[in-house]
Design a protein that fits this description.
Number of helices: 4
Structural class: mainly alpha
Radius of gyration: 25 Å
Number of domains: 2
Distance between the termini: 10 Å
Helix content: 55-70%
Order of helices and strands: HHHH
Length: 155
């Protein structure tokens, strides 16, 4: 099984666990004289099995990511950390550029006596940095995605 397939299974198992949680809480109590729609104890046991499988899958994915060396140095885990930080950095720089440009605010003054709003940051430079970060993010993400479809999951 490839890492990408394991990631899809992990997402499915996480969704299944969340659905079971919802069903358990909906059936954990019932009115006297009535029967619950589903057996909460059986659902709880099923959720335990799903979560045990999820834990095993996550361990295998993490072990594979840490052991997979990439061209240019580093591991897949390193690339994932880089991608996460690039996303945060891009969001920060783009938000700063939008705020400095007055995003969501009208720059029009109704009266000449009203104070003018001026940017405290260089908008064009920030937009350029955001574009460069977006490019780096795409490149790292492409390497990660390609690797996910090429590398087999470790036991």
């Amino acid at each position: 099984m490839k890492i990408a397939e394991a990631l899809a299974l992990r997402a499915d198992a996480a969704r299944r666990a969340e659905q079971l949680r919802s069903r358990i809480t909906a059936n954990a109590r019932y009115q006297e004289g009535e029967a619950p729609a589903e057996d909460a104890a059986a659902l709880l046991a099923e959720a335990g099995e799903v979560l045990a499988g999820l834990e095993t899958l996550i361990r295998r994915i993490n072990r594979t990511n840490a052991a997979t060396a990439l061209e240019g140095g580093g591991t897949l885990t390193d690339a994932l950390a880089r991608r996460d930080v690039l996303r945060l950095r891009h969001g920060l720089v783009a938000a700063a550029a939008d705020a400095a440009a007055g995003g969501g605010q009208h720059g029009y003054r109704q009266l000449r006596s009203e104070l003018k709003m001026l940017p405290a940051l260089p908008v064009a430079e920030l937009r350029g940095r955001a574009d460069d970060l977006a490019r780096q993010l795409r490149e790292v993400d492409t390497v990660i995605q390609r690797t996910n479809w090429e590398v087999d999951l470790l036991d």
